[in-house]
Design brief:
Length: about 120
């Protein structure tokens, strides 16, 4: 059974930090590009960041570059998103997603999401 389980969300003041985690199971983690995708209230899905399966090449949306850092631990089947200097517009549900070639075929697996709220 495939599972992607996110954790680490919460309420943070502007300028604060959070570390989101995603625990993967039930599939061969190293065969998949892993991504973070978010959905702000009342808006559609927004891609945030990717990390390749091997080599670890990363890409980021312009809106998060320099503030977000994606990483993965292939030995532990975990994906992480370090979020620094949080802004109110970062408020969203954050999902981890797995895809073999997501730019072509989309994502095969999704987590249930973790809520990030930024408020003073």
């Amino acid at each position: 059974q495939v599972q992607l389980v996110e954790s680490g969300g919460g309420l943070v003041q502007p300028g604060g930090s959070l570390r989101l985690s995603c625990a993967a199971s039930g599939f061969t983690f190293t065969n998949y590009v892993m991504s973070w995708v978010r959905q702000a209230p009342g808006k559609g899905l927004e891609w945030v960041s990717d990390i390749e399966a091997v080599g670890g090449r990363t890409t980021y949306a312009d809106s998060v570059k320099g503030r977000f850092t994606i990483s993965r631990d292939n030995a532990k089947n975990t994906l992480t998103l370090q979020i620094d200097n949080l802004k109110p517009e970062d408020r969203a549900v954050y999902y981890c997603a797995a895809g073999r070639v997501p730019t072509l075929y989309g994502y095969d697996y999704w987590g249930q999401g973790t809520q990030v709220t930024v408020s003073s």
